[in-house]
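Appendix B, Record 12. Input sequence as logged:
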Amino acid sequence: TYPQWRTITRVFHAMILLAEGRSVTESGRSCGWATTSAFIDTFTRTVGQTPGGYRAAARGTADASPPAGPFPLS
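Logged structural output:
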């Protein structure tokens, strides 16, 4: 559905920003979430990992784990 597509697109954009080193708050706001908590909830539900955990994994932090994936659409 369109809402699912829009959410996935926003999350993918946020993943790029997080991998570039942007903060969780900045990434969420840049991708259209009004609150950081709403962004964290949606990102975690979609990716299977918190945005902070994803950012750490993407940046190569030692205690980070990769996202669970694949991304659920429901």
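The CA atoms of residues 11 and 43 lie 6 Å apart.
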